Amino acid sequence: MIKNRLKVLRAERDWTQADLAERAGISRQAVISIEKYKYTPSLDLAFTLAKVFGVDITEVFVQEED
Q1: DSSP strands (E only) in the chain
Q2: Which CATH number goes with the domain that contains 36?
């Protein structure tokens, strides 16, 4: 499973899901789905999200063994 820190990173910046969605050029529903592990973003989107936060992709996403 690929875990993500979107919610934590958003909270550190005081961003709403809508704020992140706008900055990343995706829908708020996409942000919700990624945060709830209902959707795994493409590699391109994962890099975009990391860039929006200004961090390395490994600070946003990590693969964990089940």
Answers
A1: 2-4, 61-63
A2: 1.10.260.40
